[in-house]
């Protein structure tokens, strides 16, 4: 049972435009959500997180939106840059264990 | 900022041998570390939670006798793949939270190829 889902395996965006990456989850007990960026053959790099008590968190070009009623979160990158091209994973966690459940990832390609 | 380092980055071993991967938190102490595995074009799958001073907690379907985890100190966890087989070839990644409820930092990952 995939508790965290990223239904779009890939996304292509023009440089300067907005990239919107989506993530859905099924477990309403998750306390926090994170987005990670991963280049091939490297470990994931933390991008941004959001607590379940908030609906928006912004950090520079990255904004994460959380819709708890829809069990949906999205990552907005604006303006998109070619260096943003990578696989983006959303992850969810809850309780005191710090265990994360990852989505399957979305490959973002930003075209110059 | 906090750094988690893995060693080795790449390892090739013969089928039937064992290989050890280290995960170190370089500037913070981690009572808990996590080990993930990623097969090509798939998500990161949690294998086990490494607990300092006690036994690791394994996820369902992960063989604890095959994937030995030892959390030797507050800055070091090791994953030993015993009697490796070609199907164990994968990308192994560790992570550690910088305190309860804090951001989780990942190592660089270790590529294991079993031939």
Q: What does this entry look like structurally?
A:
The complex is a heterodimer of chains A (112) and B (115). By secondary structure, chain A is mostly beta strands. In chain A, 0% of the residues lie in helices and 54% in strands. Chain A is globular. With 115 residues, chain B is mainly β. Chain B is 0% helix and 52% strand. In chain B, a hairpin with a 5-residue loop joins strand 5 (45-51) and strand 6 (57-58). Chains A and B meet through strand 4, strand 5 and strand 10 of A and strand 4, strand 5, strand 9 and strand 10 of B.
Question: How do the helices and strands line up, and which of them pair or pack?
Answer:
The complex is a heterodimer of chains A (112) and B (115).
Chain A: E1 4-5, E2 10-14, E3 19-25, E4 32-38, E5 45-51, E6 56-59, E7 62-67, E8 72-77, E9 86-93, E10 100-102, E11 106-111
Parallel strand pairs in A: 2-11
Antiparallel strand pairs in A: 1-3, 3-8, 4-5, 4-9, 6-7, 7-8, 9-10, 9-11
Chain B: E1 4-7, E2 10-13, E3 19-25, E4 32-38, E5 45-51, E6 57-58, E7 67-73, E8 76-81, E9 90-97, E10 104-106, E11 110-114
Parallel strand pairs in B: 2-11
Antiparallel strand pairs in B: 1-3, 3-8, 4-5, 4-9, 5-6, 7-8, 9-10, 9-11
